[in-house]
Amino acid sequence: MENSSITNILGPLVLSFCLQCFFAGMAVIQATCYYARKARLTHRDTADIFNGGIVGAVLLLIVFGMATAIHTIHQTVTLHFGDVAYGGQGTWATWVEPAITATVGAIAHVFFIHRCWLATNKSRTICGLLVLLLLVSLGSGIAVSVFVFHAKSIGRISTIPVPMGLWLSASAVTDIAIAISLIVEHLKNTRNSGLMRKIIELTLQTGAVPAVVAVLNFVIYFAMRSTTYHLLAELSLPSIYALSVLAALLNHETAGPRRSSVALGATMTDRVEKKVEIKVERNVLVWPNLHSV
């Protein structure tokens, strides 16, 4: 019984927290790079304030989650080493993790839904559906955290397939819908890009990576419900959301000077009836022949 608990509950739990700290450290480094670039700006517009607020909120929760992970590892591996029952029960830090993951996911979804709003010419249908999925995912994630907190056992998370399934499926569907919406719009405006560059841009700017991890989290939970192996994906998901947001922002800033056609960002609202591309060649601004448009 003890070996089974170590293999199915305690082992995956400790490894999940280690992965969480690893990805959280990467997110902190990327956030530092982002704020270092923004610190050099002499003027900040509304988009900069919005993006800075998103990164700050996500970073705050990521650091808090990393602190709770370190606390849990210390309690489980150091103070209660060999106590399988305590390891399977977890601590308060373990019980609040679903709420942290759901909140970080909601903040990241707000960022990408805003990009969808701009990319789809302010489509209320698409963005309204995405907001609805966001609220379902956030609410069910908090409900899971409340249940685990009252049960005071992370191992009992397998006994609530309905709220867990609602949370994981809503989160995965939201990520997939956002990625598809942004990919479709991005492909419309990068027809002349190279294949590899297009793939990299799509991966960084559309939140495709969190969608894959969210689907993986859903599949592992229902395939191995008697274990905590799904936490390997679930506890890493907040940091992956943060990395996805930061990669989209940093990649947009890096690629921006070389590509001024309709891009994913604030310039999406500037679409005009005549599609005009402005190219920068050797730092010289070259206007296209407007008579040929």
From TrEMBL:
Pfam families: DUF6534 (PF20152). The keyword Transmembrane helix applies. It comes from Mycena metata. This is DUF6534 domain-containing protein. Keywords: Membrane, Transmembrane, Transmembrane helix. The chain crosses the membrane at residues 12-37, 49-72, 92-113, 125-149, 164-187, 199-223, 229-250. Residues 171-251 form the DUF6534 domain.
